[in-house]
Amino acid sequence: MRFFMALLLAATLHAAAPEYSSELLFPLEKWHNHSSSVVELPNGDLLTVWFHGSGERTADDVLIRGARWNHTTKKWSEPFVMADTPGFPETNPVLFVDSQKKLFFLWPVILAHQWETALMKYRISSDYQQVSGPPKWEFQDNILLMPKNIVEKTEALVAPLLAMGGKRGDHAKSLVTHAKDLYFSRMGWFTRTHPLELPSGRILVPMYSDGYSYGIMAISDDRGITWTASEPLVGEGGIQPSVVRKNDGTLVAFMRDNGPAPKRALVSYSKDDGVSWTQAVDSELLNPGTSLENIRLANGHWLVVYNDLEDKRHSLVAAISDDEGKTWKWRRHLDGKPTEVVNRQYHYPSVIQAKDGAIHVTYSFFVPDGKSIKHVRMNEDWVKAGD
Is the pTM of this model over 0.85? Predict the structure, then answer.
């Protein structure tokens, strides 16, 4: 009896121990700092990247910056340059450490000031745990994709839209035209959320195209040396997929909603390790047309960080599901509230769980005084405690 009482007491104490801390990676500044990605390194430090410059795809001074968080001092290093192609904007960088402890750094170069002209680049390193500065790279290449069945998937999607006529009908016709254009269909796919490594060793890199408002998976079965493309994840406006794996092996992709109302995160499913995907449909998660990220925690729960709004980006919330996304029983706001209509934006979260169980989130922090990247460290108990 005493043993069971001790277990109950320990569980109670654990449930009553929410943990939370936060800070900006660097002081607010006038420069545009956006779309971060964070990973934990094997030594317990964090590495974060984001894009920095005077704008986005049309600003030729945009480059990729990085910073390191020391797990002992709990301090961030000074920002440093991770990548810079002079004269071309670079955006939406993503980091990933695979099961072989190789660090992947992926990002698009925008060739002609339009998202549809994105060219994906990536680097791999096994020497990346320096105290400061960028990793030492041992491999670099481009990721070039030929989407599987893009014409067939597009024609199936737009068939009911063509009958509507008007703007939606015209848009449907343009999608078919673009799907049949080899150049358009192979350019413009780029990253936003973390890659996912499957039990087989297959690596999936979620990407998307603003030219179609589709998602796609870049697939590698040889540790990132060569890549093939999945079918596109088609729907009315589903982009920037974030992928989690269910207990039965089904992959679930939650996506930003760039489509018509109602504004909800879209969801698509794959039962063949990411090659083919169901047509995307609305989920229950609100989405104002901004990125979200969903991860599976060590205990099997899912955690999603997203803007719980249909318009604007002034409320960022973390939600937890214990039934693989069927319901989201616990929610807590990281910044803002839906009722607070203010000139602020908290958006584009990047989410990981560290080896010690802590959940780390980095996200774009835009306020009237300037822009930065914010880092939050929390645990599941903090989210479950609610607002």
Answer: yes
On whether both 175 and 282 belong to a single domain, the answer is: yes
Total number of domains constituting the chain: 3
Integer Cα distance of 51 and 40 in angstroms: 19
8 and 77 co-located in one domain: no
Say which DSSP state 322 is in.
S
- The answer as to whether 27 is a domain residue is no
Does residue 195 have a cis peptide bond before it, meaning omega lies within 30 degrees of 0? no
Is 137 part of a structural domain of the chain?
Answer: no
Asked if the model's pLDDT at residue 14 lies above 70, the reply is: no
Helix H or strand E encompassing 105: strand 103-110
No. of helices (H) and no. of strands (E), the chain: 5, 26
Find the domain containing 12 and state its range. 1-22+299-387
Cβ-count burial 130-160 (b if 16+ within 10 Å, e if not)? eeeebbebeeeeebebebbbbeebbbebbee
* Residues 16-45: tens digit of each pLDDT: 599 999 999 999 999 999 999 999 999 999
Rounded Cα distance between 26 and 364, Å, is 12
Residue 300 CB neighbour total at 10 angstroms:
12
139 found inside a domain? no
Q: Are 99 and 63 in a shared domain?
A: yes
Question: What is residue 176's predicted lDDT score, i.e. its pLDDT?
Answer: 96
> Is the domain of 99 the same as that of 202?
no
Distance CA 143, CA 107 (A): 10
